[in-house]
Amino acid sequence: xxxxxxxxxxxxxxxxxxxxxxxxxxxxxxxxxxxxxxxxxxxxxxxxxxxxxxxxxxxxxxxxxxxxxxxxxxxxxxxxxxxxxxxxxxxxxxxxxxxxxxxxxxxxxxxxxxxxxxxxxxxxxxxxxx
Length: 130
Known about the structure:
The protein is α/β, with parallel strands linked by helices and 130 residues long. The protein is built from five helices and five strands; from the N terminus they run βαβαβαβαβα.
């Protein structure tokens, strides 16, 4: 269960079941995870409760995962970013669109064990850099 010092994670996917399931798995693993289906709502929430990590689908209406990641970084400069895409061929175009930003990309479906490993690695990386 999450504690007061648990890393805060925003999970954003326009597919409700994916965002809710991922957030539930992360909470069971001790993270403070919040699910969003609307990227604009997650961006608004970042102003009041800055996430340590953003996990976002790439292809979403209103705001792409890349656009969301760039804007989240403006609000939370130390936020780690993990993008997820269901389209295998998007890896290079996604990372090129991200430009100078250092975003990582995983391909859906992501096994929960791999997702938790990647999150812990990023949290350790951000803790070591601080």
